[in-house]
User: Which sequence fits this backbone?
């Protein structure tokens, strides 16, 4: 007697998180706790101008009277904000060249496949002379370790440096744009970030310049009981173009760690910013212990006419993801895009999506969201499309698909549509499906194992999003998806 | 805390178990503007109007034929049903308005089919402006009931139990143009039951419809269609949640709305599928056309899914008439206005069919444009 | 030695007995046609041989090259050279045909301990096959069966068969839904595949396909059993007289 039981989509996960190692390095860390004096201390360590210190203190005071948002479809025990350390940096002065960087740190980035030498491309991609090199800003806990290809970029007038450095070298630009997209009291986590942000990346692309290479910031949380609060500001001046990538990992630890970043993008007339993220923070173990709380505010403003901001994200990590990369379409004929793959497995929770606010005339936005839930995870899309009274003949199209793998996971869709403009068109479509037995059987009949079949089908489901990623990232994203799904079929 | 809520004393309210209503209010509080359930609609006028007493006499539901009994809440026969069901379905709704209804009740009736398999019974529920009333509908196993309901302002909560194999066909016409109108509708379906709702709402000062349909028996079917056409400064808020708790049921919801002039149209449609509700098929669609320069549309189709072997979809659109279609009709000799009227009519006809269609489309000419 | 040997096979689906003792022996170089009215169990036989979930083998045995495969996974049967062309090929959105075929071919090679095939060689082979099946080269870049016409889906099944070089091909109603031109293309593909080293089992409702692919044996199934076997003339007799006369006898 035998009845064929194809493994169902639940048996394949004993997921090995490949970036889960700890770097053994001495750090200067401010003891846990948050107060006005800690905020001033962080500002002091970074030798910041007074206006910035006061800006932080103001954010801190506002944060004190704010509450954590409760509307997201996620559950977690209360966070003790006094038990977190708000600053941690490898000991010693910032290295002036790669030779001065602690070899232990270099080995860390080598293991992660992040090139800190200027001749290599991202690991995992075969050497190919046709692939342009990538400039890297490596942020380790609260500080930037090094930034590569600075000279090449300088020749084109592109500024790519750590945020702390930009405060010193380009104070006017920082002062003009910091908080101009995400106000410091925008939300609880943004206010917290505004008070204690440590480092991050600053990019300025001057008028008419097409940035000659991809820019990558790689964020690594290493220290224990430390939060990471980076701040990224990207300004694309008139007619410029930049493609920016962001990667992130953290060691496997039993307790949850908080990551509350703020990213602000500003696109002036005819400028185009392409922002891609592959988020692989430690997701916690299969019982839900440990993992990163990823509470991030990302927003771009299409300030100029015909400006264009495009967010592409692949979210596979974090215990909890709370993140809505958004675009304010202020300039006439500006364009906003959001392409997202969010995969949750085991006990991960994700509440992610976007906000497209149409203010200018003839603005367009496109949203493509692919949610994959496996294990006992919960995956929600939350989006808002708003057509303001001035958004003449503006358009939005949203496609939002969920794929379920296994009978204990959950998939949700919460799209808000608000239109106050009769000639604006908003279209939203959503579907929920599973990997069908018929699809699995077809693959198996052609000799493909169920594990391989599921990962192939999931990759196909995500294709529309992956093709928006730069090539190096697309390869990494696809591999990551495979790793994250391990054990999801069973 | 609940004692602070507006409440009138009437004979009827002593019949009811008010403690449940108070407990709900204690837990949820009085509805507040800008809370998730009242994000785009201020409930205050609806709450304030609860203390207005109506000068008009209350009109009881009437039978138009078939094996059906209509019992006032005060009758002895109604007592058992009231204690078992009234408040049990509607008070679970997130909005707490049904609890305020219970505390302010001025009239209540039970409608119940008395025989099964003997064809269809028909009942009319009349409009009772400014009354605060409650209706309990019980469709016994295997029987079929058709309910024709009108509202023209007031506060009404209807709770429906459709037992195994029962059919409830509900036609609802909301026609007043200057009223405050709150309606809650809570339906519970047994196995192999059918619930069909056809609803048309005109624009009025403020109208809110809360609808919740629970599927607790396998193999049930839900078909909901709704249409509205808002003019002037009217405000309509429709909230519907279809909750599948057991396997193998199906639901289809389709809503078409037209918002003209300075009106505001709010829609929230939710499909909930519990972990055990495998093999469910559920679909929701809401299409909106804006014709007014200052009109506003707020729509949110939601999916909340905990079972994997299901087929679900939803869609929502907001836009205007297709200019290509308008042009096509004009090349065939129709005036611009006539063409638009015809197309808007067609748009609404997709959801307003049958009796309701003739009634509506016969009642008011399409002069939105 | 027979390529495929089915002995006394009983199969149930959803607790309903469908196959009630099927015997079938197919040798290298042979073409067998399995015919029969709707509901006779033809497709169930094909699916059970391929190991589809839900087709419970209650008793009996399936051997490929004398090896008992009755309890093997579908992909293991595939690696051993069993191919089934689906009556209703399923869509796999976003997975391109090329990616799908490459993965399938590599899975077979890995199972046999072969190295990966070079991309150039793979593509050269694939391009010549698509040309022979009169498929647009664009076809390879589209999602598997995604918005394919009925004819394209069936030709895609044949393309997969030609890529995987099975020893035994079960073609389940491959002629259904094809117009005459597509039918000829599909038949040509099958005839090209035919060789002394492999074998074909055609599951079909009509004689039509057999005009293009001459079978060596014809079996008639009814109510879960093979009730009559013969040569190609049996198919012609069925075409003329229907299935009724067999039922009576």
Assistant:
């Amino acid at each position: 007697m035998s009845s064929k039981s194809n493994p169902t989509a639940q048996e394949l996960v004993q997921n090995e998180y490949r970036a889960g190692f700890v770097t053994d390095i001495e750090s200067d860390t401010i003891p846990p706790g948050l107060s006005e004096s800690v905020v001033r201390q962080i500002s002091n360590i970074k030798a910041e101008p007074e206006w910035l210190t006061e800006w932080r203190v103001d954010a801190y005071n506002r944060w004190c009277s704010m509450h954590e948002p409760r509307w997201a479809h996620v559950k977690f025990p209360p966070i003790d904000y006094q038990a977190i350390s708000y600053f941690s940096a490898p000991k010693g002065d910032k290295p002036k060249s790669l030779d001065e960087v602690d070899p232990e740190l270099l080995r860390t980035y080598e293991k992660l496949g992040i090139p800190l030498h200027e001749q290599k491309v991202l690991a995992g991609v075969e050497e190919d002379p046709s692939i342009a090199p990538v400039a890297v800003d490596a942020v380790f806990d609260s500080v930037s370790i090094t930034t590569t290809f600075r000279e090449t970029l300088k020749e084109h007038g592109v500024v790519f440096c750590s945020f702390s450095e930009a405060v010193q070298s380009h104070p006017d630009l920082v002062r003009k744009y910091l908080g101009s997209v995400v106000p410091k009291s925008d939300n609880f986590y943004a206010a917290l970030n505004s008070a204690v942000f440590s480092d991050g990346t600053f990019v300025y692309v001057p008028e008419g310049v097409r940035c000659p290479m991809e820019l990558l910031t790689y964020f690594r949380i290493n220290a224990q009981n430390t939060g990471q609060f980076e701040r990224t500001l990207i300004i694309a001046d008139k007619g410029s173009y930049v493609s920016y990538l962001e990667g992130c990992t953290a060691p496997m630890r039993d307790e949850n760690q908080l990551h509350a970043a703020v990213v602000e993008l500003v696109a002036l007339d005819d400028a185009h910013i392409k922002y891609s993220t592959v988020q692989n923070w430690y997701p916690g173990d299969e019982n839900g212990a440990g993992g990163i709380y990823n509470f991030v505010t990302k927003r771009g403003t299409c300030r100029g006419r015909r400006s264009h901001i495009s967010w592409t994200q692949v979210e596979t990590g974090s215990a909890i993801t709370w993140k809505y990369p958004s675009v304010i379409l202020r300039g006439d004929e500006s364009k906003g895009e959001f392409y997202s793959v969010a995969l949750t497995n085991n006990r991960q929770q994700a509440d992610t999506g976007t906000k497209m606010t149409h203010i200018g005339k003839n603005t367009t936005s496109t949203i493509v969201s692919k949610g994959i839930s496996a294990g006992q995870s919960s995956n929600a899309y939350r989006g808002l499309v708003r057509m303001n009274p001035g958004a003449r003949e503006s358009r939005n199209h949203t496609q939002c698909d969920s794929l379920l793998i296994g009978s204990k996971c959950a998939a949700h869709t919460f799209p808000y549509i608000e239109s106050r403009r009769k000639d604006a068109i908003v279209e939203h479509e959503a579907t929920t499906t599973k990997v069908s037995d018929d699809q699995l059987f077809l693959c198996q009949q052609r000799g493909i194992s169920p594990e391989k079949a599921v990962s192939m089908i999931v990759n196909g489901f995500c294709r529309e999003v992956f093709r928006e990623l730069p090539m190096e990232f697309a390869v990494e994203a696809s591999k990551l998806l495979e790793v994250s799904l391990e054990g999801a079929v069973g | 805390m609940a004692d602070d809520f507006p409440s009138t004393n009437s004979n009827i309210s002593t019949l009811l178990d008010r403690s449940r209503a108070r407990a709900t209010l204690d837990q949820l509080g009085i509805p507040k503007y800008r809370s998730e359930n009242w994000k785009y609609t201020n409930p205050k006028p609806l709450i304030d109007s609860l203390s207005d007493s109506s000068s008009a006499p209350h009109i009881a539901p009437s039978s138009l034929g078939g094996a059906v009994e209509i019992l006032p809440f005060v009758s002895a026969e109604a007592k058992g049903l009231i204690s078992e069901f009234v408040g049990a379905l509607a008070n679970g709704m997130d909005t707490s308005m049904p609890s305020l209804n219970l505390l302010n009740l001025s009239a209540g009736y039970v409608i119940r089919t008395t025989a099964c398999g003997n064809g269809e019974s028909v009942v009319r529920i009349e409009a009772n402006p400014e009354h605060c009333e409650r209706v309990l509908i019980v469709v016994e196993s295997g029987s079929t009931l058709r309910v024709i309901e009108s509202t023209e302002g007031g506060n009404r909560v209807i709770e429906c139990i459709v037992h195994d194999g029962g059919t409830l066909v509900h036609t609802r016409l909301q026609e007043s143009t200057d009223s405050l109108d709150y309606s809650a509708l809570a339906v519970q379906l047994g196995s192999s039951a059918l619930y069909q709702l056809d609803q048309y709402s005109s624009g009025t000062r403020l109208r809110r419809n809360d609808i919740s349909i629970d599927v607790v028996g396998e193999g049930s079917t839900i078909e909901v269609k709704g249409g509205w056409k808002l003019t002037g400064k009217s405000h309509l808020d429709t909230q519907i949640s279809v909750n599948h708790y057991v396997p193998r049921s199906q639901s289809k919801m389709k809503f078409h709305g037209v918002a003209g002039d300075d009106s505001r149209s709010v829609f929230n449609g939710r499909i909930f599928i519990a972990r055990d509700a495998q093999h469910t098929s559920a679909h929701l669609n809401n299409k909106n056309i804006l014709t007014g320069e200052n009109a506003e549309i707020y729509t949110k189709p939601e999916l909340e899914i905990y079972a994997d072997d299901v087929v679900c979809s939803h869609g929502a659109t907001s836009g205007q008439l297709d200019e290509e279609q308008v042009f096509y009709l004009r090349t065939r000799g129709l005036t611009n206005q006539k063409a638009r009227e015809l197309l808007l009519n067609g748009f609404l006809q997709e959801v307003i069919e049958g009796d309701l269609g003739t009634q509506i489309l016969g009642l008011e000419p399409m002069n939105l444009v | 030695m027979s390529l495929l040997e089915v002995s006394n096979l009983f199969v149930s689906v959803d607790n309903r007995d469908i196959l009630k003792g099927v015997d079938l022996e197919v040798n290298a170089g042979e073409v067998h046609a399995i015919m029969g009215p709707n509901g006779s169990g033809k497709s169930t036989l094909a699916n059970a041989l391929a190991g589809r979930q839900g087709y419970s083998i209650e008793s009996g045995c399936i051997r490929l090259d004398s090896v008992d495969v009755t309890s093997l996974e579908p992909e293991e049967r595939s690696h051993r050279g069993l191919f089934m062309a689906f009556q209703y090929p399923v869509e796999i959105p976003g997975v391109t045909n090329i990616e799908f075929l490459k993965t399938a071919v590599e899975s077979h090679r890995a199972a046999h301990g072969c190295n990966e095939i070079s991309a150039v060689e793979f593509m050269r082979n694939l391009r010549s096959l698509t040309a022979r099946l009169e498929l647009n080269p664009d076809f390879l870049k589209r999602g598997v069966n995604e918005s394919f016409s009925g004819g394209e889906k069936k030709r895609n099944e044949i393309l997969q068969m030609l890529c995987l070089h099975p020893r035994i091909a079960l073609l389940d109603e491959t002629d259904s839904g094809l117009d005459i031109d597509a039918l000829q293309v599909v038949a040509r593909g099958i005839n090209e595949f035919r060789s002394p080293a492999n074998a074909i089992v055609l599951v079909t409702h009509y004689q039509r396909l057999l005009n293009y692919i001459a079978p060596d044996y014809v079996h008639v199934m009814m109510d879960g059993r093979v009730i009559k076997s013969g040569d190609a003339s049996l198919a012609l007799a069925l075409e003329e007289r229907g299935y009724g006369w067999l039922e009576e006898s």
About this structure: The mean pLDDT of chain C is 89.
